[in-house]
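Lab notebook, design round three. We kept the backbone fixed and only want residue identities now. Task for the bench partner: fill in a sequence for the structure below.
Input structure tokens:
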């Protein structure tokens, strides 16, 4: 008896960019931090991109409520967190073009310019079905 199963498919329901929450009294238009030699360890690693999976239970809210209620709370929580950890929404910028990033760290900065955001994708996965 042979059973065929199709691969799970991802249906993206929303693409968005979340920016750090800003207080109206202080606007973070530009924020920079100097690099240290401890930062050079991480130059050779790519950025971390994670996927978080959430399995709704039978008693959880319907899918349309999930997208309207929980996703807005997730985005707001991420925005508040980014306000505390601005480097997560920033970019590593080099003052002059360089070939060796480990040399002369004084001119290298981790910076957040106005508009720094984190890309997010929200969606659902259809499980593989046996036929």
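Proposed sequence:
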């Amino acid at each position: 008896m042979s059973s065929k199963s199709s691969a799970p498919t991802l249906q993206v329901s929303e693409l968005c960019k979340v920016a750090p929450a800003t207080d109206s009294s202080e606007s973070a238009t530009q924020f920079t931090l100097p690099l240290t030699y401890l930062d050079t360890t991480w130059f050779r690693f790519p950025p971390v991109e994670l996927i978080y999976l959430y399995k709704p239970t039978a008693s959880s809210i319907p899918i349309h409520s999930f997208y309207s209620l929980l996703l807005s709370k997730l985005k707001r929580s991420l925005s508040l967190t980014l306000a505390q950890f601005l480097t997560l929404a920033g970019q590593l910028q080099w003052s002059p073009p360089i070939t060796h990033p480990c040399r002369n760290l004084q001119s290298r900065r981790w910076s957040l310019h106005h508009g720094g955001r984190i890309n997010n994708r929200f969606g659902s996965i259809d499980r593989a079905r046996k036929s």
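Keep this in mind before ordering anything: Residues 10-126 form a domain with the Chloramphenicol Acetyltransferase fold (CATH 3.30.559.10).
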